[in-house]
């Protein structure tokens, strides 16, 4: 199987046959196959694969789903598929003790206020770590996911054309770089000699997602809040929803439409109603 291929690997197909032999319904087989293919795709991005499954891989994937604020139902469905797959492998112990603590979804999308936005940039600049300043600007001004940030290579940064490129399985997004993000990226890339990775640790290794999350925690923010802020600011500045959806890499445009609802608070709705009906004749 080619790296990042979405083609079902033989092991997953064998699993589907095993499910059929155990009289599982076609819908169950289809669901489990789909969930395992998503998991395999995620594993490949981490240079792992489902043929050599380890308990830590499963826990990391569940942590990732929680970070993405997937619903309890989605996480339960995923762990159910992986648990059954572990039984098929005759390794049920792989899923023993897996911690499932889904993040409770809130009705309101959490974004940075103008004051919080300025305070975050002020504090991270005061600390003077060029890498961390660059990370904050890139997350805030491109809206990319923390996993995408950590996967960035130098070839994904086009300073001449002011672009950042995100490449994933069957997906390529080109995001314009703001002047500030561009300047910090230029200076940071010149500060280290890693041949491939954009963001690296003090030891010169590719930076991990947990390291980024830990760094941001000092400033009482998380990558998802910075991503939400990017999307919300674009919507508030009249960028059309299709463009925001494309830049953010949302597969479902309804996800992007939440930012439209979030921006329409009670006061704005009242103002819109007053504007629509004041000094107007209704025919």
UniProtKB/TrEMBL annotation:
GO molecular function, one term: DNA binding
GO biological process: DNA integration; DNA recombination
Protein name in UniProt: Tyrosine-type recombinase/integrase
Domain Core-binding (CB) stretches: 6-90
Residue stretches in coiled coil: 29-56
Keywords (A to Z) from UniProt: Coiled coil, DNA integration, DNA recombination, DNA-binding
PROSITE patterns assigned to the protein according to its UniProt record, in alphabetical order: CB, TYR_RECOMBINASE
Highest rank taxon of the organism: Bacteria
InterPro entries reported for this sequence: CB, DNA_brk_join_enz, Integrase-like_cat_sf, Integrase_catalytic, Integrase_recombinase_N, Integrase_SAM-like_N, Tyrosine_recombinase_XerCD
The species this protein was found in: Niallia endozanthoxylica
Every Tyr recombinase domain range: 107-274
Family affiliation: Belongs to the 'phage' integrase family.
């Amino acid at each position: 199987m080619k790296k990042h291929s979405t083609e079902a690997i033989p092991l997953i197909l064998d699993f589907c046959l095993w499910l059929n032999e155990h009289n599982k319904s076609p819908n169950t087989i289809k669901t489990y196959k789909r969930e395992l293919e998503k998991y395999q795709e995620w594993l490949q991005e981490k240079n792992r694969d489902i043929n050599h499954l380890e308990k830590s891989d499963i826990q990391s994937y569940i942590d990732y789903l929680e970070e993405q604020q997937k619903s309890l139902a989605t996480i339960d469905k995923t762990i159910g598929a992986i648990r059954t797959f572990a039984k098929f492998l005759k390794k049920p112990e792989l899923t023993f003790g897996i911690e499932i603590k889904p993040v409770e979804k809130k009705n309101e999308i959490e974004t940075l206020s103008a004051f919080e936005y300025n305070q975050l940039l002020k504090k991270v600049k005061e600390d003077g770590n060029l890498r961390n300043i660059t990370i904050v600007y890139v997350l805030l001004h491109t809206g990319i996911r923390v996993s995408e940030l950590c996967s960035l290579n130098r070839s994904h940064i086009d300073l001449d054309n002011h672009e950042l490129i995100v490449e994933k399985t069957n997906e390529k997004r080109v995001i314009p770089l703001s002047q500030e993000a561009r300047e910090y990226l230029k200076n940071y890339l010149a500060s280290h000699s890693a041949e491939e990775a954009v963001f690296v640790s003090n030891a010169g290794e590719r930076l991990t997602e947990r390291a980024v999350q830990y760094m941001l925690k000092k400033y009482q923010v998380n990558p998802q809040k910075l991503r939400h802020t990017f999307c919300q600011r674009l919507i508030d500045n009249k960028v059309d929803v299709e463009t925001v959806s494309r830049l953010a890499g949302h597969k479902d445009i309804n996800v992007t439409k939440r930012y439209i609802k979030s921006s329409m608070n009670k006061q704005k709705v009242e103002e819109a109603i007053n504007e629509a009906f004041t000094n107007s004749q209704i025919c």
